[in-house]
């Protein structure tokens, strides 16, 4: 950690800081430049992270030299993590596709979707039972009934299932029905919920927050890992920017960045990322090309009558043709020349 | 509500949409332009908000003509809401200042702060007991012990107290100790929590989310109002942008915008908004000049040793001199000329 | 075009607006809803775009139903545009790679790079001679001398060359040396320059502005097309967001969006998009997978001594291995399974 | 300047960097921490700014300890700059208001406005003659004719005038007619134009770019100062964010930040900042309360028929009542209590 001091920091201020730090067992390198004085702090990540250095009088800027995450970082765990869900491995050689409707709406809807996406090659079935909606007047999900239907569809098709837990009070109930717990973008910094799923014995899919930096995202993963649950799957779903043509701005660079910084697997959700079904297939191809470990895609047998997120859902047919295309050795320059 | 149809929408698609809408009791105005066809939908806000129009095949764009909030809107409630907390009125003639430390750290710290800010003219005492922190390794607050100390300091000084509730499971406990429940920026769309505080019998201070639009913010207020709690106080605390010199970008325009759209009172938190104590006083003056109903300011007897958010906290002295200045008939062109 | 009127718009205001519009030859559809009154305006894009409707008293919101661009739009020109530069076609079946250093620094540097990228399969050679730099103290490019060296390297290798024109006064000179004129992100709304290159007889590569929406970007292309130059190539190079790990946020969704809205070809610049050489190869693969017509990549024989943008430049070796990889029929699910 | 090395930087890499730096006359402090090695570089700002350190192999991060601007900074020039335009001083005790229409449209329009704003207390008259417009089909200004009318109105009323220069080729012409040269947001990084106005003998008003950081803005001022023109006036006019209710997000915190970092005066443009006339008065009050040296406000005798930016223009009456209010010793807590 480096402290850049204010230009007019007094001798006394500097001495006071150094004394304070040394008392805490931190070694301090003093370095006087032309304009500014800087202090290099050497100590364990633990010790340094607890120092209230930003409030020391005379300190202008604090530069963190080490990443603030440890358990989520590559240096702690150089090999990529592979997370097993039933017979599926997320983070292995093969990309995994999670597919299904935004919300479970009825037995027919979820069963029809499950059978169809299974056939097309999906590895997991998704379906929301508790839906975060901006408006209190919008459909909020079927609740436990939705989870039951989802579990039933999973059982019938042999697909493991995933659904969002929005609320610590429901965690135990949700856990009963699902194979993977999903934490939504709006809950990425719901620290109480992070800790609770960190003590659960199910893998957790952690979506990136609407305006979360990659570092903050990894820190939220750190909350879960730190409670003892090693099975965290990241999911990029678009960030909020000034662009309005797409619902969010899908930040695909996050894929190689996460691969560089962390051992955790990363999926991409092009449905929320773009908000328009038309762009889901090209962005799915792009996500895999960037190195994503898989996709999370919204599929609905009848998007027009969907009770939530219809405009971004693929029909069963669209999903089949996208999956077919993704299985072809397609992208690259030569390939396109021959196509 | 207006539907703009895709240029190549077929006769059948249009007919299907119109039939579907009329069945739901919606009147449809059909209008064919040079390039595009548009449908004007006329019906109650309730009915319209439940239509899955965005997923209708052939629809390119949906334009919402009415605001999506009702209870929070000016048309529903033309007079500004005044919220009474003890002897203080938020939303009345006099701006109200909420002051206190980011976190309650000890009896001495909170008592000393309470006495001092009371003397300087603060109307409420703030102090965090449960702290949302990006890192699991940072100080997370004293918990219930912190609330007890806060309540004690409130009682001694006669200041009503406010503290953040982060978690539905703790709501009952927090409610016992505080006069106003605070919902933090990260929880602005924690819908379960919104509903729960909507059923509580205490006023709620709702901070704007880091990347929430003003409309989304009012929709979150709508969640609380819709559960029966009319006492919602909004608090602008800065949004996330590309600018890095300040911790957030304090969006003071939100003040007149909220005053135009809603009857709810709005406070401004320049401490989180700027992240640097140096900018707290000028932005406090600006907030009041923009029409804010008050301020929420972090004050600490010894910011250098604060366990959280020290760099943005005012010392007791700084707070006193700011309050003195705010009480002077100071700002405006003539005033400055004479100063 | 649709006008949503203010809730309290008076009968007189409405009449005045309608009269004014009808005088201009616009047909008006009047539609009174429960809360709001809306007016549908029917007329040619030309006529409508010149109406000062947003300032009419009583108008709350104006909704543009048609896209504001015409020449750049798909409806005007349904077939994708193919732009020929020497023997290379941009927008055809084969993706095209533009490669070369950020700045031309010396004859050796540009010649060595040109020979190497040619061998690796690049289609055009890039090299800056006039560099936009945030600081007046940074290297600003070799100027005309740089253009000469670039042209020489192009001639020797047979690669067409591209370089940025920053200033209308230099346009004639730059045009002498290059095959494609580049307009940088900071000049995307330098309207004078847009008009001038619109009258030039060379193709123009138009980079997206740091905070430009896709619609604004297409409107800037419209400026060029409107002056008579049909050869506009778009280039996505990342937008500015709150994320700091990457230099910009590469918005790959812009690729399918542009393909949907426009007939113009689109390239992607992953070097500026990410700012780090490490992420250039995966984002290049992703860009092609998303459907980009090619890439623009910074390559330098010795990035460490580069006078600008070294951290995002590939070495010659890195570029060769990336190109080799891009030529393999690589990405897709099956492909990865077999790899 | 500080270099943070990559964790796996080799002994040779470090030696190579140190040798390279010492050859350039830079003193290097070597400091080995638990995880990372850091190098502190000591040398003149000039020398350091020219080092291609970011490209050195083995360097992970470069931390700039000193501000990159010198001439614009407070340390170079501790006293605030006062810029005299005719009899008006910008940056002195009294706030200055620049008022006038977005575009000069006719002699009557500009004369009527000039007389009216003069009477209300405006210090300068604004009026655009060359207008940057997103669409090539929108009104682009009257050109030189507009400048003539503006100059005439200025002469008649005794108000100095300001107008935007968009294009280096027009600079000499614009300079003939105006007292202050305006550089628009879209040209904040038009470096050629910055240099040219830096050699002009007229004060320059430099608007902040739509997505420019405060540091980049000051670097653009540095370009002008570095060419010898000391008379730079900054103008905050809103930045681009995700919020759509206002046209831009007016970043009033920029006012105290600029006051802290720089000696240059800063104005605020609430018309572009909010895009809606309704919010201009409260944000004007807030800007002055934050410490701005003045305002730039759009005023039009008939905003409904304005050829550009009508929705954000005040009528003459609105401007008068705003100015009257701004001259009253109005804002502050006590003041409000008595109001």
UniProtKB/TrEMBL annotation, chains A, B, C, D:
Pfam family, one: DAHP_synth_1
Domain DAHP synthetase I/KDSA, chain residue ranges per copy: 87-327
GO BP: aromatic amino acid family biosynthetic process
This protein's record includes keyword Nucleus: no
Stretches assigned to coiled coil: none
Transmembrane segments annotated in the record for this chain: none
Alphabetized UniProt keyword annotations: Transferase
Gene Ontology terms, MF aspect: aldehyde-lyase activity; transferase activity
Keyword Thylakoid included in the entry's annotation: no
Ranges of residues in domain DAHP synthase ferredoxin-like: 1-67
Matches recorded under PANTHER family: PHOSPHO-2-DEHYDRO-3-DEOXYHEPTONATE ALDOLASE (PTHR43018:SF2)
Official protein name in the record: 3-deoxy-D-arabinoheptulosonate-7-phosphate synthase
């Amino acid at each position: 950690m480096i402290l850049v001091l204010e230009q007019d920091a007094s001798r006394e201020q500097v001495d006071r800081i150094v004394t304070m730090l040394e008392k805490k067992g931190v070694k301090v390198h003093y370095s006087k430049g032309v304009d500014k004085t800087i202090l290099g702090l050497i100590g364990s990540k633990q010790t340094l992270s607890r120092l209230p250095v930003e409030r020391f009088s005379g300190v202008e800027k604090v530069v963190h030299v080490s990443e603030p995450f440890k358990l989520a970082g590559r240096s702690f765990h150089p090999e990529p993590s592979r997370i097993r869900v039933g017979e599926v491995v997320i983070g292995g050689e093969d990309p995994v596709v999670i597919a299904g409707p935004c919300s479970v709406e009825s037995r027919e809807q979820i069963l029809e979707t499950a059978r169809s996406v299974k056939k097309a090659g999906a590895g997991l079935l998704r379906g929301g039972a508790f839906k975060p909606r901006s408006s209190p007047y919008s459909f909020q999900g079927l609740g436990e009934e939705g989870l039951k239907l989802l579990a039933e569809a999973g059982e019938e098709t042999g697909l493991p299932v995933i659904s969002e837990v929005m609320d610590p009070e429901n965690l135990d109930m949700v856990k009963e029905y699902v194979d993977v717990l999903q934490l939504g973008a709006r809950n990425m910094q719901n620290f109480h919920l992070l800790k609770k799923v960190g003590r659960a014995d199910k893998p957790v899919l952690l979506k990136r927050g609407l305006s979360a930096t990659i570092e903050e995202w990894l820190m939220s993963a750190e909350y879960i890992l730190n409670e003892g649950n090693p099975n965290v799957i990241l999911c990029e779903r678009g960030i909020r920017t000034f662009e309005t043509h797409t619902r969010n701005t899908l930040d695909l660079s996050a894929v190689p960045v996460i691969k560089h910084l962390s051992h955790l697997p990363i999926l991409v959700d092009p449905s929320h990322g773009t908000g328009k079904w038309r762009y889901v297939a090209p962005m799915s191809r792009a996500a895999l090309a960037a190195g994503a470990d898989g996709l999370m895609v919204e599929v609905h047998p009848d998007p027009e009558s969907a009770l939530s997120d219809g405009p971004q859902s693929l029909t069963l047919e669209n999903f089949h043709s996208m999956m077919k295309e993704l299985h072809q050795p397609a992208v690259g320059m030569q390939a396109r020349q021959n196509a």
